[in-house]
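Wait, mind explaining this?

_____
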Amino acid sequence: MDVEGFTTARVLTRQRRLQGDFHWALLVIFAGVVLLTSIVIADRLFGIDYYDLVRDPNAIAGQPKYFGLVSNLGVIFWFAGGFAALQAYWAGAGFAAPHLRRALLAGGLFSGLMGVDDLLMLHEAVATAGVPESLVLVPHMLLLATLCYHAWFIRRDVQSLLLVAAVMSLGCSFLVDAVSEHIAGLVFVEEGFKILGIMFLAVFLSLTSHAALSTRARR
């Protein structure tokens, strides 16, 4: 056994790891500086009090802590499923199965986009500017359609029933939303379908990602 060669390899591996840690640390610092600088610019140039940007919305508004509880849980589930799928994709899961990889990518992007949209109320904000909400949601629908398309080819290898349940639940929520303003009590039904759809999708993406990573690890 070449002890000297083994020791040298360990030292080089440690140096590369330290260099990688240093680069990631610089990236985090840079992103933090950009974020904080943006807050200062918003405060000084646009008159947006930094306090309103850094505090929890309910703390600022003085509302009970449970306000928006289900909506916040939905955002968590959106991101959980999205991060799981994108992590598996970036890790090279399903490299020999193109439809699986594309399903992971489309599912991760869709879930992540929906999470950001729900968190920041993006499509509602754009809609108030005069842009039809149906037009704003086109990218969301394209990503969901792409996920379903590729999932069709791997339906025997994944828990496809969960994806079907997610699409049906989200579709019902969208349909109920179209009439919920005119009928009392339908907002509860709409949000009920929505949170179920998000949970179904999060579990589907998480299980599919886990299976893809496990298959890759066994090779």
About this structure: Residues 66-217 form one domain.
